[in-house]
Specification:
One of its GO terms (biological process) is photosynthesis. This protein has 186 residues and is α+β, with helices and mostly antiparallel strands. It has eight helices and six strands. Helix 4 crosses helix 8 and helix 5 packs antiparallel against helix 6. The relative contact order is 0.15.
Protein backbone atom coordinates (compact mmCIF):
# COMPACT_ATOMS: atom_id res chain seq x y z
CA UNK A 1 0.00 0.00 0.00
CA UNK A 2 1.27 3.48 -0.88
CA UNK A 3 1.70 5.91 2.01
CA UNK A 4 0.02 9.28 1.53
CA UNK A 5 0.39 12.84 2.85
CA UNK A 6 -1.66 15.97 2.38
CA UNK A 7 -1.18 17.81 -0.92
CA UNK A 8 0.00 20.98 0.82
CA UNK A 9 3.34 19.25 1.42
CA UNK A 10 3.95 20.12 -2.25
CA UNK A 11 1.33 22.72 -3.18
CA UNK A 12 2.63 25.34 -0.76
CA UNK A 13 6.10 25.12 -2.30
CA UNK A 14 4.78 26.77 -5.45
CA UNK A 15 4.60 30.39 -4.25
CA UNK A 16 8.12 30.57 -2.76
CA UNK A 17 9.55 28.84 -5.83
CA UNK A 18 7.65 31.16 -8.16
CA UNK A 19 9.00 34.17 -6.26
CA UNK A 20 12.56 32.90 -6.72
CA UNK A 21 12.55 31.62 -10.27
CA UNK A 22 9.12 31.66 -11.86
CA UNK A 23 7.80 28.95 -14.12
CA UNK A 24 11.26 27.58 -14.98
CA UNK A 25 12.01 26.82 -11.34
CA UNK A 26 8.52 25.39 -10.84
CA UNK A 27 9.10 23.08 -13.82
CA UNK A 28 12.42 21.98 -12.30
CA UNK A 29 10.62 21.14 -9.05
CA UNK A 30 7.99 19.11 -10.85
CA UNK A 31 10.68 17.13 -12.67
CA UNK A 32 12.56 16.51 -9.42
CA UNK A 33 9.36 15.28 -7.75
CA UNK A 34 8.49 13.08 -10.73
CA UNK A 35 5.30 14.98 -11.53
CA UNK A 36 3.85 16.11 -14.85
CA UNK A 37 1.83 18.84 -13.10
CA UNK A 38 0.99 20.10 -9.61
CA UNK A 39 -1.43 17.88 -7.70
CA UNK A 40 -4.86 19.32 -7.10
CA UNK A 41 -5.87 20.18 -3.57
CA UNK A 42 -8.70 17.65 -3.44
CA UNK A 43 -6.86 14.48 -2.47
CA UNK A 44 -3.87 13.05 -0.70
CA UNK A 45 -0.60 12.52 -2.58
CA UNK A 46 2.04 9.82 -2.41
CA UNK A 47 4.53 10.61 0.32
CA UNK A 48 7.45 9.61 -1.90
CA UNK A 49 6.49 12.38 -4.35
CA UNK A 50 6.45 14.96 -1.54
CA UNK A 51 9.72 13.54 -0.18
CA UNK A 52 11.41 13.94 -3.59
CA UNK A 53 10.18 17.53 -3.84
CA UNK A 54 11.55 18.43 -0.40
CA UNK A 55 14.82 16.58 -1.02
CA UNK A 56 15.32 18.51 -4.27
CA UNK A 57 15.17 21.96 -2.66
CA UNK A 58 18.93 22.25 -1.94
CA UNK A 59 19.68 21.59 -5.60
CA UNK A 60 17.09 24.07 -6.85
CA UNK A 61 17.43 27.19 -4.71
CA UNK A 62 20.19 28.88 -2.73
CA UNK A 63 17.92 29.24 0.32
CA UNK A 64 16.15 25.85 0.63
CA UNK A 65 15.47 26.21 4.34
CA UNK A 66 13.69 29.53 3.79
CA UNK A 67 11.60 27.99 1.00
CA UNK A 68 10.63 25.08 3.25
CA UNK A 69 9.72 27.44 6.10
CA UNK A 70 7.62 29.67 3.83
CA UNK A 71 5.81 26.60 2.49
CA UNK A 72 5.29 25.26 6.02
CA UNK A 73 3.83 28.55 7.25
CA UNK A 74 1.56 28.67 4.19
CA UNK A 75 0.45 25.10 4.92
CA UNK A 76 -0.47 26.10 8.47
CA UNK A 77 -2.40 29.11 7.17
CA UNK A 78 -4.26 26.80 4.78
CA UNK A 79 -5.11 24.52 7.72
CA UNK A 80 -6.38 27.50 9.70
CA UNK A 81 -8.49 28.72 6.78
CA UNK A 82 -9.90 25.36 5.67
CA UNK A 83 -9.45 22.57 8.20
CA UNK A 84 -9.90 23.84 11.76
CA UNK A 85 -13.46 25.00 12.46
CA UNK A 86 -13.83 28.67 13.40
CA UNK A 87 -15.41 27.77 16.76
CA UNK A 88 -12.47 25.55 17.67
CA UNK A 89 -10.05 28.32 16.70
CA UNK A 90 -11.98 30.87 18.75
CA UNK A 91 -11.96 28.56 21.77
CA UNK A 92 -8.23 27.82 21.55
CA UNK A 93 -7.39 31.51 21.17
CA UNK A 94 -9.46 32.43 24.22
CA UNK A 95 -8.23 29.70 26.52
CA UNK A 96 -5.14 30.23 28.66
CA UNK A 97 -2.09 28.79 26.87
CA UNK A 98 -1.64 25.95 29.42
CA UNK A 99 -5.11 24.71 28.41
CA UNK A 100 -4.94 25.51 24.69
CA UNK A 101 -1.58 23.84 24.07
CA UNK A 102 -2.66 20.30 25.10
CA UNK A 103 -5.91 20.59 23.15
CA UNK A 104 -4.09 21.73 20.02
CA UNK A 105 -1.47 19.02 20.51
CA UNK A 106 -4.17 16.32 20.67
CA UNK A 107 -5.72 17.67 17.46
CA UNK A 108 -2.32 17.66 15.74
CA UNK A 109 -1.74 14.07 16.88
CA UNK A 110 -5.17 13.00 15.62
CA UNK A 111 -4.35 14.34 12.15
CA UNK A 112 -0.66 13.41 12.08
CA UNK A 113 -1.19 10.96 9.23
CA UNK A 114 -1.69 13.96 6.93
CA UNK A 115 1.86 15.24 7.45
CA UNK A 116 3.80 12.19 8.60
CA UNK A 117 2.59 9.58 6.11
CA UNK A 118 4.21 6.26 6.95
CA UNK A 119 6.20 7.88 9.76
CA UNK A 120 5.16 7.37 13.37
CA UNK A 121 4.05 10.54 15.18
CA UNK A 122 4.26 10.64 18.98
CA UNK A 123 4.14 13.14 21.78
CA UNK A 124 7.30 12.02 23.56
CA UNK A 125 7.38 14.57 26.41
CA UNK A 126 5.02 17.05 27.96
CA UNK A 127 7.72 19.34 29.45
CA UNK A 128 9.10 20.67 27.36
CA UNK A 129 6.44 19.63 24.89
CA UNK A 130 8.25 17.38 22.41
CA UNK A 131 6.73 15.99 19.23
CA UNK A 132 8.46 13.23 17.28
CA UNK A 133 8.11 11.68 13.83
CA UNK A 134 10.01 8.41 13.54
CA UNK A 135 10.91 7.44 9.98
CA UNK A 136 9.78 10.86 8.80
CA UNK A 137 9.34 10.60 5.02
CA UNK A 138 9.67 14.38 4.58
CA UNK A 139 12.92 14.72 6.51
CA UNK A 140 15.20 16.51 4.08
CA UNK A 141 18.93 16.76 3.73
CA UNK A 142 18.91 20.02 5.71
CA UNK A 143 16.34 19.00 8.33
CA UNK A 144 12.63 19.52 8.74
CA UNK A 145 12.04 23.24 8.33
CA UNK A 146 8.66 22.61 6.70
CA UNK A 147 7.40 20.73 9.78
CA UNK A 148 8.91 23.32 12.13
CA UNK A 149 7.05 26.12 10.34
CA UNK A 150 3.74 24.21 10.24
CA UNK A 151 3.88 23.46 13.97
CA UNK A 152 5.16 26.89 15.00
CA UNK A 153 2.55 28.77 12.97
CA UNK A 154 -0.27 26.65 14.39
CA UNK A 155 0.91 26.98 18.01
CA UNK A 156 1.56 30.72 17.68
CA UNK A 157 -1.78 31.34 15.97
CA UNK A 158 -3.94 29.26 18.29
CA UNK A 159 -2.21 28.96 21.67
CA UNK A 160 0.48 31.56 22.35
CA UNK A 161 2.27 33.89 19.89
CA UNK A 162 5.45 33.59 21.95
CA UNK A 163 5.84 29.85 21.35
CA UNK A 164 8.78 28.63 19.31
CA UNK A 165 9.35 25.25 17.70
CA UNK A 166 12.90 23.98 17.41
CA UNK A 167 14.05 20.82 15.68
CA UNK A 168 16.37 18.99 18.08
CA UNK A 169 17.05 15.83 16.03
CA UNK A 170 16.40 14.63 12.50
CA UNK A 171 16.02 11.24 10.81
CA UNK A 172 17.84 12.57 7.77
CA UNK A 173 20.87 13.20 9.98
CA UNK A 174 20.86 9.76 11.56
CA UNK A 175 18.53 10.26 14.53
CA UNK A 176 15.88 7.68 15.39
CA UNK A 177 13.20 10.34 14.99
CA UNK A 178 12.74 13.94 14.03
CA UNK A 179 12.26 15.69 17.37
CA UNK A 180 10.52 19.07 17.73
CA UNK A 181 10.44 21.03 20.99
CA UNK A 182 7.68 23.55 21.60
CA UNK A 183 8.87 26.16 24.10
CA UNK A 184 8.20 29.70 25.18
CA UNK A 185 11.40 31.70 25.56
CA UNK A 186 11.73 33.53 28.88
Amino acid sequence: MTALVGPNAILQLRAPLDARGGEALIADMLRAAGLADWPDATGMIEERVAARAHAALPDLVPDPRAVAREAGAATAHYILAHRIPARAQWLLRHLPAPMAIPLLTRAIAAHAWTFSGSGAFTISRRRPLTLEIAQNPLAGPLGCDWHVAVFETLYQSLADPRLRVTERACCAMGAEACRFEVTRPA
